């Protein structure tokens, strides 16, 4: 196999494989999704599952081939990292692998792509099809993982939210790690819910596997992964603390809270912080230094480059203090690009994506306030804690990302990893409200 094109034009965007083999691969993955619908007993649900999951993946196949062959949008070079790794696999004994241009964090992405590249050939289209397939499989995994616990309505709402998420469709046309991370983040959340609400220990395998995969791809997400676990354990300990009578038990619970939740949480945050500072070349820098000196340098390098552009205009960015920068960048993680910065088609995609997220945030808050806070619906303590743990984790992640992510394109991509938190929490609550209203139609209409 000739890999000479890699050496002359890295990263090349010109390499295209055999169209029919790539099309066969796409159709094979589509058939797999349709076959999964056979595990659903209800014929009507089978149809809707195939229509939603299969239909959107078919759309991804279409836009990938159209974009790769007709250049509707600029082709991104990132997909070639996996192709470089294919070379790495065939030349493992080489001491200098492509002058260090292949990052170890792409190893997992290479591993999940390898069987498809081996079977259907080395081509950019195949890498992108795998990315599109993995974003679809995130929704499918959540559907089957939550269906037995919450019922069909919840499962379908989660399927719809995760499948129709604009970034999951948009980044199918890129070769980045984010679609693969999207799957494993969803796997981690679903496994957590199953472990917390059932007596089965089988979800532990999903938790461990997803943690290892995400840690190897983007270790700075390490702290986010453990945040909902920490919230759930801490709330449980606080509940026990309130109900216990003796001072000795209260002291034991306080020590237990520190050892089991706070200390591991601080360690996870410290490790994640270390990975972030190492990644941006700012080892030992304080958060304030990062958001001032290092983030400012990065901002100056990236301002005006690419479709993402800056979150805050340069004249404002350099005139405001660090805490204002952080606040605006955290806000920009949700609302991006700001309306006056929508100047291209990719930015329109990002704006639609932002609207999608804002709708979920507002919807979750309104539904919780109207139905849970007022006591109109009693979902049980465990389920309510799950709703809130995922919701709070999303906002915690947004706040942390606001320190360093100052490019709207990066924010659009990076928030894809944390979207499952808000999507699943909103879907769970919305399904609960819909079921309540269906059961109480007569009372509500009276």
TrEMBL record:
> Keywords assigned by UniProt?
Membrane, Transmembrane, Transmembrane helix
Presence of the UniProt keyword Membrane in the record: yes
What protein name applies here?
Answer: Glycosyltransferase RgtA/B/C/D-like domain-containing protein
Sequence intervals crossing the membrane: 20-40, 47-66, 102-120, 127-144, 150-174, 195-215, 221-240, 252-273, 348-367, 387-405, 417-436
Q: Which domain of life is it from?
A: Bacteria
